[in-house]
Design a protein that fits this description.
Elements (H helix, E strand, L loop, with lengths): L1 H13 L27 H24 L4 H10 L5 H45 L1
Helix pairs in contact: 1-4, 2-4
């Protein structure tokens, strides 16, 4: 989770002009040209990634704040509610970990692409002044 927050913080610090991401689509993994049909541009992804951060932070805080009382735990054990709680928890934690990994990769890719855009702008400025 720390990697996700670190990547998001870096994205927020580096992306000073999100509007530069409008109309720029993510590069596809196989090196093929990006398909603009049905995909969100990097500006929309930036907005989504930025809006998800407080939700993740709030969720992480609420999980650490929840501390079941011993009577609640005793009651659920007495009732035999579910024998495979550990398996279910493991499944959900693995799913959450995969989502956070994907969010981190998307955030890092967006930040890299933004840096490339800035470099292209700077190169264009250098060539026009020569």
């Amino acid at each position: 989770m720390e990697q996700y927050f670190s990547a998001t913080q870096k994205m927020e610090q580096e992306v000073m002009f999100p509007s530069l991401l409008r109309g720029v689509f993510p590069q596809q993994q196989d090196g093929a040209a990006p398909d603009a049909n049905g995909h969100t541009d990097l500006y929309e992804r930036y907005q989504i990634l930025k809006s998800i951060k407080p939700v993740v932070a709030k969720g992480a805080a609420s999980v650490s704040d929840q501390n079941p009382t011993s009577t609640d735990a005793d009651t659920s054990l007495d009732e035999g509610v579910d024998n495979n709680l550990e398996e279910r928890l493991s499944h959900h934690v693995n799913g959450l970990q995969q989502v956070l990994t994907d969010l981190t990769k998307n955030t890092k890719a967006l930040t890299r692409r933004y840096s490339q855009i800035l470099e292209e702008i700077n190169l264009g400025d250098d060539q026009s002044s020569s």
